Amino acid sequence: MTDPRRTHALTPLIQAVPAFPVAFVFLLGPGRELIASRGLGVIALTLGGALLGYLGLAAVSWLLWSRRTFWIDTDGDLRVDSGVVERSSRRLQLSRLQSVDIVAPFLARLAGLVEVRVEVAGTSGSHVVLRYLSRADADLLRRMILEFARRTADDVAPEEEPWVNEPDLLASVPQGRLMGSLLLRSVTATLLLLSVLLLVFTAATQGGAGLVLVLITGGLPILSVVGEFLSNYGFRVDRSREGLRIRQGLLSTKTRTIPAERVHAVAVVSPLLWRRRGWVRVTVTIAGVEGDASRSGPEVLIPVAPRAEALALIAEVLPGVDVEALPFVRAPRASRWRSPFAWRTLAVAITPDVIAARYGRMTATTAIAPHSHVQSVRVTQGAWERRLGLASLHADTAPGPVHVVARHLDQALVRPLADQEIALVHRVRRMP
Amino acid sequence: MDSVDAVFVPPAAAWMPVSRKLATARRITLSLGYILVAVGGGVIAWSPLPRWWLVGYLIAAVVVYVWAWWVIGRRVAAYGYAERADDLIVVSGILVRRLVIVPYGRMQMVDLRAGPIDRWLGIATVQLHTAAATTDAAIPGLTPLEAAALRDRLAARGEARSAGL
User: Fold this and answer.
1) What topology does CATH give the domain A11-154?
2) What are the backbone angles phi and psi of residue B157, rounded to the nearest 5°?
């Protein structure tokens, strides 16, 4: 239980800042002609207007801020009361908590503030953003929410010092490796190579048109590399009591917690250009709980890591699963007529805990889903597959980046495998 | 039974078939679609194109119509489902054959729906939803009584087996 309180007092001042860019856009756009015809006074007028707009926005924002309070009530629910004319009262059942994220948007970060996003299972309106709080307040609130969630969910007595939770570093991504991994992507590398060729070509022929193309072939990958570099900068994964805690970002940092039981599927992805360095990426499907299937959570467990480090991370979310020792059954030789490049990589493995599928030549992927999160099992057979005596096995999981699909297997094996998988799904389901 | 059918072999004696009225419904939809084809024919007839264009067009339209008519019959015949103790199995498709097994405990919602032509003919579709968007388990062409009973049975079994995350 806590007393009702407001967010940080600087909030209205930060929320009103967008008034300024609007003024600049006006100056650059329709305002340009005005300046040309009426002189520089227009600039002063616009800046004055912007200031006035800022103060107005800040005032409205302040009014809203002053009427918005949040607290944790005696039932262990997070309550948010807000609204000036029309009051609204939100109540988030923390026992159904899904995630608490701390995000530091650029502007708030300049003021040393962060926002806290709380999500619980449910359909709409199960999401609250508290902006803005000081870093220390946000950390405290986050721990309290997690603690209340754990307590109400498990009904166990709180331990002493419940919020002491030393982070325990599992993996981090050095900047050099991150940059290298971004440059060594097929699309990026191809486009950059193309840009260099174009530059050489334009220099040789002295034709200017090539430069426009370079702007696209060179500009796009640089934009995407810079964007991803900023968002994945300082990526680190810690083990905490509530699950894996991921922190990332340079201009705006993001902190997320992934409880192991919310992980529906995991994939180890190894792009062609990374293979010599032994790097892989790990993506995960974090799904909403029942009744909220459409919302998927964070998708990258680690953007780039040496294989051993990545597998150690997977062991955290899928305990007892050894990715290197999965008993893969490969697709038969006949599959080379259906999938001439990747057929050697196609394989499926079923263990007592998980089902795994391997596929992809350029981007070698191993997708793994625990039986406890497999939603349904499908067998498909196209006309061409039927001619070759092949069929594909799909383990359907919640929507996300991971697809457990074992393609072009021997058709004699597929139905027994499907039956085996569904039996395992039933078995883990029955266990409490 | 050859080895191809072994992949899609029914768990019990046979798959439960769906109503032949589904073929009728789909053939009505097909025929309604042919209004557009007729409009196309009219455009050709009124345009300065040579006459043999119209003849070729009409022949092609008739061939496609007959072929689609026949495919609809085969596709409806290919539908089958079986209720087992713990899961529901649905098979479908002729060119691409599909089999989906949905454990009752994984069902989040069972939908019953029927369009205007379906209602007029007295058939309905039962659709199963799980947390996976790819599950794709629909049984069309059930009589409304069958459909409602199936939906209720599925919902009851789903509730009994759902552990509730």
Assistant:
1) PH-domain like (2.30.29)
2) -65, -40
Residues of A in contact with B95 (CB under 8 A): 382-383
What is this model's ipTM? 0.87
Residues in chain B: 165
> With contacts defined as CB-CB under 8 Å, which chain B residues touch A290?
108, 131, 162, 164-165
Which residue from A307, A301, A292, A266 is spatially nearest to A402, judged by alpha carbons?
A266
- The C-alpha of A326 sits at a distance from chain B's nearest C-alpha, in angstroms, of 24
Owning domain of residue B64:
21-75
Closest Cα to residue B112, out of B149, B148, B84? B148
- Whether residue A139 contacts residue A102, with contact meaning beta carbons closer than 8 Å, is answered with yes
**Residue B37 to chain A, least CA–CA distance (Å):** 29
Indicate whether B30 belongs to any domain: yes
Of A286, A372, A375, A421, which to mutate for an interface test with B (greatest number of B Cβ within 10 Å)? A375
* Sheet strands side by side (includes B109-113): B109-113, B124-129, B137-142
pTM of the model: 0.73
pLDDT digits (tens, 9 = 90+) for B138-157: 999 999 999 999 999 988 88
A132 by DSSP, 3-state: which?
A: strand
- Cβ–Cβ of B131/A375 closer than 8 Å? yes
